[in-house]
Each structure stands twice: as structure tokens, then as C-alpha cells.
Specification:
mainly alpha; two-stranded antiparallel sheet; 5 helices
């Protein structure tokens, strides 16, 4: 008897059922263990998303309630900047700062990164930034 999907099963178990049905035979699924580099990338993306969220919330509070948190937040941003400077070289920090602060225009447009050869490099997500930064090591 072939297994069926069930809400009581874990997501992984239901994925296995789907793959078994597609292939028409039983399979064994094994998780690939994340490397140290994978963990660093996930943490980096979480940090970038957090910085952007904090900045957006600050701007939203300023616009909605005329509550300027720039001086209050600056201490935290300085600490984060120092920690990032500890982990990345100057060229990588320039890329980080471009991504976080310089790619947005006053009219809301988002600029692409232009490399030394004039190629446009999209930086829409922290993951894309991560791979550009890793190439700048």
C-alpha cells in the first residue's frame, strides 16, 4: 500500500511521499549538512535584513509621528558597523554601505551596482550581496 499525504506527518515526510509517487518507487532522503560557509551566509542575510528593517521602522515612525530616532539608533548602527568592519575588508565594506545606504535614490529608484568593467550587478537581496562580497575577498 502506497503512503499518502497527511497533516500529521512532517513536511519532510510528505515531501518523501511526493517524490516516491513521482518516481513510482520508495526512496531515501538525506539532509545535506550545512557547511560553515552556509551558516555564515544565513547569519549575514539575517543581519542585513535586520538593519534594513530597523531603518525602515525608524523612517516610518518619523513620517507617521514626527518621531526622529536617528540619534537613538545611531549607537546601535555604529556597533554593527564596527563589527562588520572587523569581519570584512575595506572593499567589502564599501559594497555593504552601497547596499544599505547608497543604492536608494530620493525618488525611490534603486540603483544597480556597476563593477569596474561597467557591468550592472543586481543587488536585490542580501544573498546576492553575500556572493558579491565573497568575490571581493
Amino acid at each position: 500500500m502506497q503512503e499518502e499525504f497527511s497533516p500529521e506527518k512532517s513536511h519532510d515526510e510528505n515531501v518523501k511521499v511526493a517524490i516516491d509517487k513521482i518516481l513510482g518507487q520508495p526512496t531515501n532522503l538525506k539532509r545535506k549538512k550545512k557547511s560553515s560557509e552556509d551558516h555564515k551566509r544565513v547569519l549575514f542575510c539575517k543581519i542585513m535584513d535586520g538593519i534594513i528593517l530597523a531603518e525602515e521602522r525608524s523612517i516610518g515612525l518619523d513620517e507617521a509621528f514626527n518621531l526622529n530616532l536617528e540619534k537613538y539608533n545611531q549607537v546601535f548602527f555604529d556597533i554593527i558597523q564596527d563589527l562588520l568592519s572587523y569581519a570584512f575588508n575595506r572593499e567589502q565594506m564599501n559594497l555593504l554601505n552601497f547596499y544599505l545606504y547608497d543604492r536608494y535614490c530620493a525618488d525611490g529608484a534603486v540603483l544597480d551596482l556597476v563593477d569596474s568593467e561597467g557591468n550592472h550587478v543586481p543587488l536585490d537581496t542580501p544573498t546576492e550581496l553575500w556572493f558579491v562580497i565573497k568575490n571581493a575577498e
